[in-house]
Specification:
It is a single chain. This protein has helices at 6-11, 13-20, 55-67, 81-95, 116-121, 138-147, 162-178, 192-203, 232-238, 244-247, 249-253, 256-266, 355-372, 379-398, 404-410, and strands spanning 24-26, 46-51, 71-77, 110-111, 128-131, 151-154, 182-184, 209-218, 272-278, 291-297, 303-310, 319-324, 327-332, 337-342, 347-351, 402-403, 419-421. The chain is of the alpha/beta class. It has 2 domains: 6-187 and 361-377, NAD(P)-binding Rossmann-like Domain (Rossmann fold), CATH 3.40.50.720; 189-353 and 387-411, Dihydrodipicolinate Reductase, domain 2, CATH 3.30.360. A 9-stranded mixed β-sheet has the order 15-14-13-12-8-11-10-9-16. The two termini are 21 Å apart. The structure holds nicotinamide-adenine-dinucleotide. Residues 52-57, 77-80, 83, 114, 116-117, 132-135, 137, 155-156, 185, 187, 237, 253 line the site of nicotinamide-adenine-dinucleotide (NAD).
Amino acid sequence: MSNPTRRDFIANTASATAAIGAAAFLVPEGFGAWQTTKPAAPGRVINIGLIGAGGRGSGAANDSLSANPNVRVVAIADLDVEKAKGVRDALAEAHNKEGATRIAVPDERIFGGIDGYQKVLDLKDVDLVILATAPGFRPVHLVAAVAARKHIFAEKPLCVDVAGYHAVCAAHDKALAQGTSIVTGTQYRRQTSFLEGMKRIREGMIGEVVGMTARYCSNGIWYRERKPGMSDMEYQIYNWMHFIWLSGDQAGEQAVHNIDVVHWVMGGPPVRAFASGSRWNRPADSEMWDSVSCDFEYADGRICSFTGRHWGNADNQFDNIVYGSKGIAYLRAFDAGTQITDRSGKELFSMKGSIGAAYRQEHKELVDAVVAGKPIVEARQTAESSLMAVMAREAAYSGQTATWEFMTTKSKLDLMPKVVTIPGEAPKPFVRKPGEYRLQ
Ligand SMILES: NC(=O)c1ccc[n+]([C@@H]2O[C@H](COP(=O)([O-])OP(=O)(O)OC[C@H]3O[C@@H](n4cnc5c(N)ncnc54)[C@H](O)[C@@H]3O)[C@@H](O)[C@H]2O)c1
């Protein structure tokens, strides 16, 4: 099968599964095999399965345990079983206090392997899963978790390509129809300083919104050296930030937070994106660019600009700045808070920020929604922000103007390898060059 399409692949899934065996990860058909597990009933403990026990996955589990007295962790999947055991032990030390068993994960409930996520989803006593692996796997894991009727906390970004966007939107609709929740890791939407700033923008404190700027400019990002004996696939997943099919590049993996604020302020996606960028200081095998800047143009002509970069020994900047006819709102990232001024610079409002509180609030709202039987389903919103990041990246890579209509109705961008095996081969890394690389 040379260069199979996703459809060919799906048609061949059953035979491929049989041929490749348990070590293979296959893009699933998605909505075929509904399980009989019911959404969690009110009033009982909510059992969490953690899928992806890295920095954020372990942090998200800790946030949920800290925010919700009625949750416990009962299973973990991670490619690195020893790391998962370490996370289990650290969470137990923090939360199994005074005889409580809030971490109830025996070794046989820690699943390695590329299909470990499915083993967690197959557990009938798991009510809710935290999806926090490398982003490239998110659509597949999200579709499978919805199919298993689990409530979901899904870290951002929700997709790194167009095929992933469509899969996530379909999963959103399915979750809505069946009454299960999907809350996403776009924590600024639950950060008090952002919410209070947005409320005042909506109430007219800065007049009419005429445009905005969103920045994610930092000194750099981690790079994980290949370990001896790693196959190409193991290495790429280990060093996932640097491979676009896994991370989506900086715009998707990090700056999606700020791009999501653009989506929030403007009330939806733009009509087109005009972008530029650079690459000169990445390690040789990294596919990432150093910077991407993009003008998102809205239907009424307003433009919101975004700048993302990883430059060492340069100024860091993470502000979202909303320009109004009467004033300016600074919705600052992390703990930097919100400030609103009039056009002369006179302060009209200010508030401190706490990103830590926002990280806990998203888990509180999710668990409260599950217990109350009133699902929150927000995957489409975050899929749109994630696709805006893809659009910015692809417009920069190609030098072409990308329209939302093209991205959502014509683009065939599908970066996920058809079969992932560990150990195994991986896509050959390459750096996209404007003029040569085209929108697809
Ligand atoms: N909301 C936020 O502020 C925030 C902050 C940091 C990270 N994140 C997001 O969280 C996600 C994880 O980031 P991280 O920093 O924790 O990365 P990480 O590399 O520390 O952890 C990822 C973990 O996932 C595991 N993994 C990767 N692919 C897997 C697969 N197919 N099956 C099972 N396990 C797999 C890895 O072994 C690793 O332990 C990313 O999507 C990232 O964008 C969000």
